[in-house]
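Field reference: sequence -> structure
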Amino acid sequence: MNRHAIVILDGYTLNPGDLDWSGFEALGDVTVYDRTAEDQILQRIGEAAIVITNKTPLTRETIMAARNLRYIGVLATGYNVVDTAAAKERGVPVTNIPTYGTDAVAQFTFALLLELAHHVQHHSDAVKEGRWSKSPDFCFWDYPLMELRDKTMGIIGYGRIGQATARIARAFGMKVVAYDSYQDEAHRDVYVSLGQLLGESDVISLHCPLFEETRGIINAQNIAQMKDGVIILNTSRGPLIVEEDLAEALNSGKVGAAAVDVVSVEPIEADNPLLTAKNILITPHIAWAPKESRIRLMDIAVHNLAAFLDGKAVNVVNS
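Structure field:
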């Protein structure tokens, strides 16, 4: 029996060494590259039938030129790096990982919010620098500290992650409102219009996919409708925010604080206006990355491929 050639184009972020590729290795002959530059993609695919990618782009040109290509697996939920229409033309299914990091991302959202509420790292650093030892009082703080109870959290995008974030918010005693273009009848009591959410929320957290209708949903016009001092969180997709507008609102004080785990171009570019804005936390796209969620992602990716090889493809995004 011939074993399938499997090429993993950019395996490092999923597996920097603490996981293994044994699930894929049971299904074929695996070649793993930590990273692949754009001018290396086609050569590395070579004669492989199965290509696995995370953020390495697979363009129409590449898909049409890879003559043995039969399957593309994306190691993420978002699959905009693949020309899915071109793959469909060739009869090549593209699969994604629809849910693996729900709890990790919701947890990270609150890690960001709690840091903004209490400035834990800053105050710990201040203690280690000797400021508490020299303080004339039994305590000190450098920033206003915020209690979350009775604050309103507005969640834009009320899918699995949005709902998981809402559960945590309610555990803190927060009121939750949500906006979503698709409204599940089971949650009808939480939905409000986008305008109402913008006007009522003390904290706005983004959990919607990046579509044309959501691109730039946080912009100067929408920020103007928000409460003064609002907090904005983004653990979804960078282009949901017009970064110049958010930076201006942070610097003016209209937005009290923000925390983003994603930006419009990743890795972040040196001239990104958020880097010099006031009162913002920026983390390097790590909400998804606890080991537990990466193991889950790996298992689903292997299952996707096994199902395809068994003639019962699942999680296909271009059927």
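Note: DSSP finds eleven helices and eleven strands in the chain.
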